[in-house]
Specification:
By secondary structure, the chain is of the alpha/beta class. The chain has helices spanning 50-62, 80-94, 106-115, 117-125, 156-162, 181-184, and strands spanning 3-11, 19-24, 46-47, 68-73, 97-101, 128-131, 152-154. α2 (80-94) links the parallel β4 and β5 (97-101). The radius of gyration is 16 Å and the shape is globular. It starts with a strand and ends with a helix.
Length: 187
C-alpha cells in the first residue's frame, strides 16, 4: 500500500499558484542534501487508504482558492502501480491541474516505461513534471519550483506527443540577465 508523509492544504512553493501538496513515501535516489530524507522509506508516514484519499479529495474540492494539486515526496514514481490509481482519482474527482516532482529524468521514465506501461500512463495524467535528482552542487535559490539547476519543468503530455522534451517555456525566459529577484524568478 502507498504511504504518505503529510499534506499541505495550501502552499505556494510546490508549483504555480496555491496548491494542495501530497508528499508520498518511498524514494531510491537518496540525493545528497535532500530536503526530505525521511521520505526515502516507502513505509514511512501513514498508509494512504481509500478513507484518507476521500478526505483529501473533499479538502481539495472544498477550497475555491486552490489552483492545483502537487505530488512530491519521496518520489511518486517509486511505486507506479500504486500511484496511478491515486493520481487518476485525484485528477478526475477534482479537475485540478497536476504537478509531479520526480528524481528520475524524463528520459529515464520513458526507458522504464518500455517495461512498465503504467509509467507512461502516469505521464499522460500529469500536467507539469519537475524532473531530475536534486544535486547539491547545483543548488540554487533562483530556480523557481526547483531545488537545483539540473531539474527541468516539463510538459509531459506535449513531450509524449512530440517525442521530445518540451519545457514549460514561461519558466525559461530568453533574456536571463535580470536585475532583481522578482525578475529572475523564472530562470
Amino acid at each position: 500500500m502507498l504511504h504518505y508523509l503529510y499534506t499541505y492544504p495550501e502552499t505556494i512553493v510546490d508549483g504555480e499558484g496555491i496548491r494542495y501538496s501530497i508528499y508520498l513515501a518511498g524514494c531510491s535516489h537518496r540525493c545528497k542534501g535532500c530536503h526530505n530524507p525521511e521520505s526515502w522509506n516507502p513505509k514511512a508516514g501513514k498508509p494512504l487508504t481509500q478513507e484518507v484519499l476521500e478526505q483529501i479529495v473533499q479538502e481539495i474540492n472544498a477550497n475555491p482558492l486552490l489552483d492545483g494539486v502537487t505530488f512530491s515526496g519521496g518520489d511518486p514514481f517509486y511505486n507506479p502501480e500504486e500511484f496511478l490509481p491515486v493520481l487518476k482519482e485525484v485528477s478526475q474527482r477534482t479537475g485540478m491541474n497536476i504537478w509531479c516532482y520526480t528524481g528520475f529524468t524524463y528520459e529515464n521514465l520513458l526507458k522504464l516505461g518500455e517495461a512498465n506501461p503504467k509509467i507512461i500512463e502516469l505521464l499522460k495524467q500529469i500536467d507539469v513534471l519537475v524532473d531530475g535528482p536534486f544535486i547539491l552542487d547545483k543548488k540554487s535559490y533562483d530556480c523557481v519550483f526547483r531545488g537545483s539547476t539540473n531539474q527541468r519543468i516539463i510538459d509531459p503530455k506535449e513531450s509524449l506527443k512530440k517525442k521530445k522534451v518540451c519545457l514549460v517555456e514561461k519558466y525559461y525566459p530568453k533574456d536571463k540577465k535580470k536585475n532583481n529577484k522578482r525578475e529572475r524568478m523564472y530562470i
